[in-house]
Protein 1
Amino acid sequence: MAQRDAGPVGDGEPVAGPLTKQDFEALARFRFGIRRYLRFSEETVRSYGVTPQHYQLLLALKGFPGREWATVRELAERLQLRHHSVVELVNRAQGQGLVERAPDSDDARAVRVLLTRDGEQILARLSALHRDELRRMNGTLTLPTWHGEPEEGGDDGRGLSAR
């Protein structure tokens, strides 16, 4: 079978030659690290009575660039969800006292979603635990360096960069 010319990233076609065994190992290790972190996150937030989706919402609000609030449309983009799904998520979080809605002073059609004091407190606790877990995981979530393509910092011999 003839290999097609490499197209833009994301078009479903590979941009480089075939993967090596080391590349597959690096991909598998990275995927395992992602899943391990996500499982930690899911279990941790549930132990605090919050759903993983609510934690993601709180984090998206607090981490929104340049301000302490966001619109539902902006949250939908950040969370990669449909608008109506975010409306339901915000409704449930508001019912739990984690977020509140306020009119946008610049645009009467828009509504700001903000963290409440309770939302801030639980987010601070959960985010500190997430930060600590990432520190424990150290290099597990480091992006793989592909065989034959060393990145800055070199290769650690396992197909991962030594960042």
Note: The longest strand covers residues 99-103.
Protein 2
Amino acid sequence: MTTYAVPALVVVMSWIALDEVPGPLTIVGDVLCLAGVAIIRSRPRVPAPIDPEAAETAA
């Protein structure tokens, strides 16, 4: 869940520490980063199939 917070935290920290006001391009970049994270995290993880022959030889 912290992955979603990183772009927003960077903008807020730079605003506070460097007195850098975020511009429109910064906001677009943040939205793009969050969209990319949302796409990657929305796909279900599929476990790798277990090969019964490989399991027998390993034991």
Note: The longest helix spans residues 24-42.
Protein 3
Amino acid sequence: MDTRTWDTLVSSMKSTYVNGVGEGATPRPVIMPLVRGELVGLIWVRPTKPGADALTGIAALSNIAAAACADEVVLAWETHDVATACELPVVGPAPCLNMVHATPDGHVLHQFPYSEEFSSDGSEDAEGATAALAWERAPAPQPGGELPPPVQAAVDYAFTPMELDHPNPFGVTVVLMEDDGYTVRLTDGFDH
């Protein structure tokens, strides 16, 4: 992946987090598969129940990458959000936007810690409070950095060829994932 594409993805995810946290919601984990440097799209995890369902939901993000025959993937998630949803211990900075860039040969973990700053509109109740993000200094990228188990599974399976007996395995995977509740936004230019 070229530097410009990476910078665009990081900027896009940071914007998504600023907007999401400002609206009181942490964005769900997302996968961004690439084929020959071309972004396939963004696919957000379906709504999940805490525990095993969340683990499975995040790991299954790999299906779209495998169906597209991706040669690179980027996954983004929030440390505390994934730990809570999957009932895992918090590992690494929190709160933190994590992004992993992976290829079949390995991965590099990038972490973007932030703090939430709350402001009030002067009302007595907490409902008038709004949150804003302040990005903190990012640690150095970590080649082979430790990933939460469901993210590691998504990375591992993203490069495992799918064996679907269907004339359009990518198209049917998109439809099945949307039916399961995943939010799929494909780029206009992706032609598989």
Note: Confidence is low (pLDDT under 50) at residues 122-126.
